[in-house]
Amino acid sequence: MTAVGPADRYGRNADADARANRQLRIAAILLGALAVIGIGWYGWHSVVDSKVSAQVVAFKAVSDQAVEIHLEVHKSSGTVAVCTLRSEDKDHNEVGRKDVTLAEHAKQVDTIVTVRTTARGETGELVHCGTAPKN
Predict the structure, then answer these.
(1) Considering only 23-32, 42-51, 65-74, 121-130, which range has the smallest mean pLDDT?
(2) CA 58/CA 52 separation, integer angstroms
(3) DSSP 15
(4) Helix (H, G, I), strand (E, B), or coil: what is residue 90?
(5) Helices (H), 1-135
(6) pLDDT digit string, tens, across residues 29-40
(7) What was the pLDDT predicted at 10?
(8) Burial of 130 (0-12, 13-18, 19+ CB in 10 A)
(9) DSSP state for residue 83 in the 8-state scheme
(10) Cα(106)–Cα(72) distance, rounded to whole angstroms?
């Protein structure tokens, strides 16, 4: 009786295995390159498109119907920014929201915004700030 090797038993040979390994390696390299390109594109656009940054410097409830929010915005000169501000009560319910358009040509804008509320506001928060949509 003669010994039967695995290649004879299962019908595979070394050349087929080498071809399959080469094809898998090429597919993995292509998918890796596409992933790197996609991540780079996303990172580039998230950095380049964020021409506006903002922060709340301070806030205070001036009455049961209003909260004053001191907003500091950094942007390119000539860029029109739109910032959304809100106030919440002590139970974290939203009691006021306001969109503020900042069209000043300065690179830094400090402004105090009054947000009208339906109940006493305990917080003054920045929800979002970005460039205004172009008409």
Answers:
(1) 42-51
(2) 19
(3) H
(4) coil
(5) 6-10, 14-48
(6) 999 999 999 999
(7) 66
(8) middle
(9) E
(10) 12
